[in-house]
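Readers outside the structure-tokenisation community will struggle with the description of the input data as it stands. Showing the layout once, in full, would remove most of the difficulty. For illustration, here is how one protein appears when written out as sequence plus structure tokens:
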Amino acid sequence: MAQKSLSPKELSKKNTLFIVLGSFFLTNAILAELIGVKIFSLESALGLAPAQLALSKNFVLDFNLTAGVIIWPVVFIVSDIINEYFGVRGVRKISYITAGLICYVFLIIVISTELPPADFWLSLNATAPSGEAFDIDYAFSLIFRQGLGIIIGSIIAFLIGQLVDAYTFDFIRRLTRSRIIWLRATGSTLVSQLIDSFVVLFVAFYVFGNWSWEQIMAVSTINYIYKFAVAIALTPILYALHHYIDRYLGKDLLSQMEAEAVSSSKK
């Protein structure tokens, strides 16, 4: 049955919702890419000793995480909300836009790192707080450029993770219909982040880098455990967002958008 046309007010609400969700999704995705080069110790941040969980002789787990995992769960949660109201087609659209903009960001970063540094900038920052010699231009390039492997691995993992998340979410929604929001949101996030956690590190640091397979498995596993825990912890926020968005849209617009979201996955 054909959907009724939206009134100007309803169309404005629908477009505003997509812009807000899409902007938040895009901003967090790009931020996660930029800060992901840093590996931090969760134990040190909490004032604890390294866990040193020995699963085998060459497979020791500490809670060493990429800084990007701080906000990646947020990206996947927002992706699920977009899927809820705009369907797989909406997630694909914002994912392709974001991937293109990530490429653009990295292109600008590469260009900026190739620009010759000003002499006064180098001299003003020639000494570290400890008194040792410091090359700020090298540090700038090392941090922001990250390396070709991380760029390629990040984009591949992002696209694969987002598409897997979208289709897993849609599959669970077809089984549960409008019930059990937490199952389709958390379930799709856990599946997609399992792939994302391993793909990005494998491509960036194993294929293009110098990490051992044991290091890849250790950091990837810890990253996934963290994402698993955060995805579950964010469930109450997911319900709160659903409640607020449902009230914002209104019953009639909500029903039509949910129907369109389900039908979009069939196309």
